[in-house]
Amino acid sequence: MFAVLALLSAACYGAADFLGGLTAKRASTLAIVVVSQLSGLLLLLLLIMFPLLPAALPVRGDFLWGALAGLTGGAGVALLYRALAIGVMAIVAPTTAVCAVAIPVLVAVGLGERPSVLAVGGIGLAIVAIGLISQSSHPDPTPREDSQSAVDSHMSAFSLALVSGVLVGLFFLALARTSDQAGLWPLVAARIVSVSLFAGMALVASQSLRLPTGIVGTVVAGGVLDMLANLLYMIATRSGPLSVVVTLASLYPASTVLLARVILHERLNARQWIGIACALVAVVAIVR
Fold it and tell me: Which pLDDT band holds residue 285 (cuts at 50, 70, 90)?
């Protein structure tokens, strides 16, 4: 069951990223992130009031891990957007995604997890798949005033992508460290921290958080899907090995590119098709 939950989490993460990409060109990034994150927080609060959920008994550590998840996840997203703005998506996206899955897997193995040989092969193949799926065939949008400035920009974007990937990996790791009895409260703590972080950034930058009327629904839907992804991932980590769960959840780029193919009719290049095939084989290997 944990494998199904992790894959559903990946599908929701990818769909949320897809919706975020649809709205990114029509409003400021900070406004989109704050509204989407706030909508996810409201969903959580509604779920907590649902009378049929089992009683939660969070301890102090659960709130601290949740707060750390909100801080690292929020900072990771901010750095990722900056890296995408100044760099090449085909370099930034796979760098961030591979780092995000590698950190929790290495920590899990260090803490004593011993996946089977087949699962280890599946994890390695999944990391390759993430890199291939993220390879966009769109031209590089980075301005090229001169070759040296282009090199500096790419190096800066690569560095930001590395740090972003580490932070997102720490986000995955922090959520996985919460206790089974904590219920949804670690996610509440995480989302309060991330909303406060981005709202504070908008305040410092004197940037309006108002969105065009036509995209509010899409932004809210993206926030709800992102929160569902977090919820499914956290539940999966409570019933399955972290190294396997985080690898399956990190296959979210496949969901994004497939949605772009179906809805926007974007063409997938050969590398992306190979990556999707590798992802399917990796899922079978990991689950078995």
Answer: confident
Distance CA 172, CA 97 (A): 12
- Looking at residue 196, its pLDDT comes to 93
Rounded distance between C-alpha atoms, residue 161 and residue 87, angstroms: 9
Domain boundaries, the chain: 2-50+59-287
Q: Which residues contact 43 (CB under 8 A, 6 or more apart)?
A: 223, 224, 227, 228
Q: Output the six-digit token pair for 156.
A: 């800066």
Who contacts 64 (Cβ-Cβ below 8 Å, separation ≥6)? none
The model's pTM:
0.84
- Tell me how far apart the alpha carbons of residues 103 and 279 are, in angstroms, rounded to a whole number: 19
* Coil, strand or helix at 11: helix
DSSP for 149-189, written as a single string = HHHHHHHHHHHHHHHHHHHHHHHHHHHHTS-GGGTTHHHHH
Look up residue 240 and give its two tokens: 């399955």
How many residues in total does the chain contain?
288
